[in-house]
Amino acid sequence: QVQLVESGGGLVQPGGSLRLSCAASRSISSFVTMRWYRQTPGNERELVAAITSGGITNYEDPVKGRFTISRDNAKNTVILQMNSLKPEDTAVYYCYADFISRGNVLEIWGQGTLVTVSS
Questions:
Q1: Cα–Cα distance, 44 to 78 (Å, whole number)
Q2: What are the Cα distances from residue 84, in Å, to 17, 25, 63?
Q3: What pLDDT shows up at residue 4?
Q4: How far apart are CA 42 and CA 76, in angstroms?
Q5: Per-residue model confidence as pLDDT tens digits over 17-38
Q6: What H or E segment, with its residue span, contains residue 24?
Q7: Which ranges constitute the DSSP H helices of the chain?
């Protein structure tokens, strides 16, 4: 069973940076897309950034120019570098991946890591 494990969350002051990691329990080279989502209490989970197997990236407007998503296939890891953090970035951040297995598209989620931006 494939698993995703996030790490790197924590408390940071406004304007600071954090680097989130998502480690997969198997090779990510066959993952179609890997994404980061975030969720705050009472709200739906929202997409933050995505990266395809070919390295094409996409960012939602609130994080454009501040966040960078990357993937290291050799380490089976996807990274979210977050700079110029704002209090409104406070959320639980989740890693997501989809891949094809036996003709079916499967989706997996990590357990989440909490990011708190506060002075």
A1: 23
A2: 6, 31, 10
A3: 96
A4: 32
A5: 999 999 999 888 888 999 999 9
A6: strand 18-24
A7: none
